[in-house]
Amino acid sequence: MLPPYVSRALISERLPLIFPEGTPNRSYCTRELAASTVFAMLYIGAVEGADVWLGPVHVYRMTDMQAEDCCETARLNYRTNLRKKSFQVPGRRWYADNTREPIRDETLREGLLVVGAVLELADVPTTSGVPRYALKAELAALLDPALVGEDLNAAILMWQEKHLSRSARARVSLMRAGTAGKEGVLVSFPNGETRRLASGPSSDISKAVVEVFAAKFLERPGVIWLSESGNKVAHPDLKLSSMIGLDIETQKNLPDLILVDLAPVEPLIVFVEVVATDGAITPRRQEALYAIADKGGFSRSQIAFVTAYADREGAGFKKTVTGLAWGSFTWFMSEPENLVLLQNGVSRLSSLNVLVEPT
To answer: Nearest 5°: phi and psi at 245?
Structure first.
């Protein structure tokens, strides 16, 4: 028995619901190539328990004419005869032969296999062209056209709870939280004050930096400066900046956030750039911020730089990661316990042992 016919369009609609923002390698699980791969699995019946397996060839040789022929005979013929040289698939192929690598390496191995959506035959050699992939039955059930509305939402949530890892679910929850509402984003500062920022992804990240990052990585945190789009004097703490000797009133080109850790004898100044789409700590930006600290009489050992993002899967990180400055940190709102250091000045591989902590 073949599973119910499901159109590629319906699969394209449901994959982003099943794999929400925060899912590891989400783009590999939700893009058109993923929908095409899942469609081909369902079309030929490569579903857990059926002992039918898919190879990349089933995806890249599919055509619109073949895909629209939903009768059981056409589907079985495609499954059984595709690998025969005499078999002709009507219409224009979806993809060229060289698409087999992204189907195999990205969509399947780095995407759907990682999130527990697909099975792989373990005893097939890596270099073999023998079909080896099948859609897990519980994932296939979420693509049933008869499953709609609240029943669909409940089934998706149940699947995510069972199959996404704890860390993946945490990332999804943080990305779903959506702290921005119609009234804006309320930020609570370490000194007890609050301020409401305009709604938007940058404000969500700024709130996380102040409330989560500062509390996690600074001993006695304070916020000297917080700006937002269209309002570069959103929260200047003139009293705190004057106390540590940083004159922010006369400075230009300030970052999105300036934090301070008052615990050290010499306060640590942390310049933070928030990236929703652009504006990371680049080498040029780093030097401009160093100049601000230099004018305030601060030693460069008292300065730290952080670029804050929503998530590693986000477009902002992918767009700016290659330009991040050495000697700066990277922090993700969706993985608040972790901090990335772009270490500079390591000249010997043996220096790595200084950075590695025992597990």
So the answer is: 90, 20
Q: What is the maximal distance between C-alpha atoms in the chain?
A: 82
Strands 231-236 and 303-309: unpaired
pTM: 0.62
Task: Copy the structure tokens of residue 249.
Answer: 């009133």
CA distance 241 to 220: 15
First to last CA, the chain: 49
Q: Percentage of the chain with pLDDT > 70? A: 85
DSSP 340: E
Q: What domains are there in the chain, each with its CATH number?
A: 8-174 (1.10.10), 185-355 (3.40.1350.80)
Concatenating the DSSP letter of every residue in 17-83 gives HHS-TTSTTHHHHHSHHHHHHHHHHHHHT-BTTS---B-HHHHHT-BHHHHH--SHHHHHHHHHHTT
- Distance, CA of 197 to CA of 316 (rounded, Å): 20
What is the secondary structure of 244-270 as a DSSP string?
HT---TT--S--SEEEEE-SSSSPEEE
Q: Tell which wins on pLDDT, 182 or 281.
A: 281
Q: What is the mean pLDDT of residues 50-67?
A: 95
Residue 1: pLDDT over 70: yes
What are the tens digits of pLDDT across the range 176-190?
A: 555 444 567 888 888
246 strand-pairing partners: none
More confident residue, 76 or 354: 76
Whether 162 shows a pLDDT value over 90: the answer reads: no
